[in-house]
Amino acid sequence: MSAIVGIVGEAGGRSQSADQLALACTPHDLQRTSRYLDDRAAIVARWSDEDRAVARSPRYAGRSPYYTATADAVAVSCTAQPDLLDLYRRHGTAAVTQLTGDFAIAVWDRDRNRLLLAADRTGERTLYWRLSGGRLIFASQLRALLADPHASQELDPVALHHYLTYRYVPAPWTIYAGIRKLPPGTSLIWADGRVTTRRYWTLDTAAGPSAPGVDQAAKQLRGRLVDAVRSRLPATGPPQVLLSGGISATLVAAAVTRSTSVRTHTCSVGFGEPRLDQRAAARAVARALGTEHQEYRVTGLDPAVPQQIAGLFDEPFASPAAIPAYLVARYAGVRRAEAFCGLGGALLYGGSPHHLLLGWLNGWPQRPAGLPGLQRAGAALVRRSMAGTPVRRLGRLLEVAGCPPPTRYARIVAECSAEQKNALYAARLRDELADVDSGLLAEAAYLASSGDSQAARMTDADLLGYLPGDVLARWSTVSAGAGLRLQAPLLDHRLLEWVAGLPASWKVPGRRRNLARRAAAGWLPGRVVTSDPVDARPPLASWLRGELREIAGDLLTDRTFQDRGLFQPAAVRRLLDEHQAGLDHAGEIYTLLQLELWLRHRPGSVRDPALAGQRDMTLEESGYGTAGAGGCPAAASPTGDLR
């Protein structure tokens, strides 16, 4: 992998500035540097000596995997794309449609005075950018843009509002005012000081007019997955797979063993909490596949782990699933620099928790305002139950029962409701955000879908928000922090497009005709494929009453936290006390804790963070959609001009 940065559009001083931004990228041992400079642009790519083995691979014929330049053009990429400049010369800005896998690329065309930026289709990689007076600065890491002395360090209050809702900052926002990130499947063109963005890829989730039988489809899935794996095999050494024992990782591990003659390595991690321990299931899969298997066991949670995680992210991030992901990546990174994983499997067969939960509500009556009595009863059950339990699931169902499907989806994927946030905000922040509804982002993404079923529309919305913002951000960040590069073949866009056209009934977990299980059964014994899945959701409520109780109580009540002026101290104290008394406020508390930990990792951030005084992007400009009648968002435009 490489880190890429660039500055276009302003004469003078760009080379030194671009080098300054590149040096801020991590890891800091990126010894190799390639640099392009002309009178209008400075582009820099940095990578480590370890990647020289990649460059020596016959696949690249002596060319740099990350950097190609001529006298009047340069192409750089975060991942190996040695043909990028040739593709651009043949296809122009449509070259991005010819790329596969994960990528974040930049192409500078001096003759046309044009810069092309693009992020891959599912958001495994992205780019950050800032426009100032016609000058565009971009980087593959947010921290690089902050090294620009002209960049504002002010926090965007709207982005903070979205973070508290979803536990991540959704693209195109970043936590910093004036800095944006490219959403998945999006390209950006800078020309003559003006910026336009467009979605170059969306997944067509409408079922095809005809489909093979489920057994024939399972056979085709195995073949397509092997193709996706072969295109991602490491240039040297045996491949490694993060093996959880779940159906997605099992499929990937089986495909890897059939894609190479080298014995595959597998790795699994178990935790002290019994329901988090996936080692037995992973061991059975490894034994059936004949892999060289290694497993680790983690007992207890070190309170330093959330602090370490906060230090890895350039923005606040509060998914508790980052904790087991961080520990898995740390152990796996000891063995190999790359690893395959089963990310994206839920998109193949609709197995994500909110898909399953909302599937139970098909056929329920719908009212614009929902059913208030049921919503109150559901909220009470949620507060008094543990995550993952039947009582919690019933509570979440009652909370959204009676709402229209877009509203159901938006409420299920949200961590904090508008009412919960308003109860926490200090007066100045509550007034500033009174007209901002974060739920409209998820609703607009759902309504913009062309899918012909609720499951298909949720998948479309997940591809824009939950998958890149939570799942992929979590794994890509913690794995990079462990020196590990992940490969997710189930997210190959050709595989996604093929699976999207198959009947939705084949993608429901537990069904006899489930496509993923049928495919795995062609490679593995039935007893391995049909084993019960492991509930891997972290016991966050217990941790916040045990290992994390002290750090949460200290950081969310001390003078530094109070002096920031973002939240009401009494309201936060009430959350902490009620949680210790038995109510479940784990989601809200952990979201506040990770924000505070992240703020304390920022240079010079001990005091009150400055909030931007004005907004620089509306919902319409964000590309999610526009407000329609009755406050519901209309379909999002596939293009947006973010000048």
**How are strands sequenced across the largest beta sheet?**
4-5-6-7-11-12-18
CA(first)-CA(last) distance = 30 Å
Overall geometric form: globular
Approximately how much helix is present in the residues? 40-55%
- List unreliable stretches of 5+ residues: 625-643
Strand content: 5-15%
Determine Rg (CA atoms, Å): 24 Å
What is the fold's blueprint, element by element?
Elements: E1 2-8, H1 14-23, E2 32-37, E3 41-47, H2 52-55, E4 67-69, E5 73-77, H3 84-91, E6 104-109, E7 114-119, E8 128-132, E9 135-139, H4 142-146, H5 157-166, E10 180-181, E11 186-191, E12 194-199, H6 214-230, E13 240-242, H7 247-257, E14 265-271, H8 279-289, E15 292-298, H9 304-312, H10 322-335, E16 338-340, H11 345-349, H12 353-359, H13 372-383, H14 390-400, H15 405-412, H16 418-424, H17 427-432, H18 439-447, H19 454-464, H20 466-481, E17 485-487, H21 493-500, H22 515-521, H23 526-529, H24 540-545, H25 549-555, H26 559-563, H27 569-581, H28 586-601, H29 619-622, E18 639-640
Description:
This protein is 41% helix and 14% strand. With 643 residues, the chain is of the alpha+beta class. Strands 4-5-6-7-11-12-18 form a seven-stranded antiparallel sheet. The protein has a six-stranded antiparallel sheet with strand order 2-3-1-9-8-10. α6 packs across α22 (515-521) and α9 packs across α28. The longest helix has 17 residues, at 214-230.
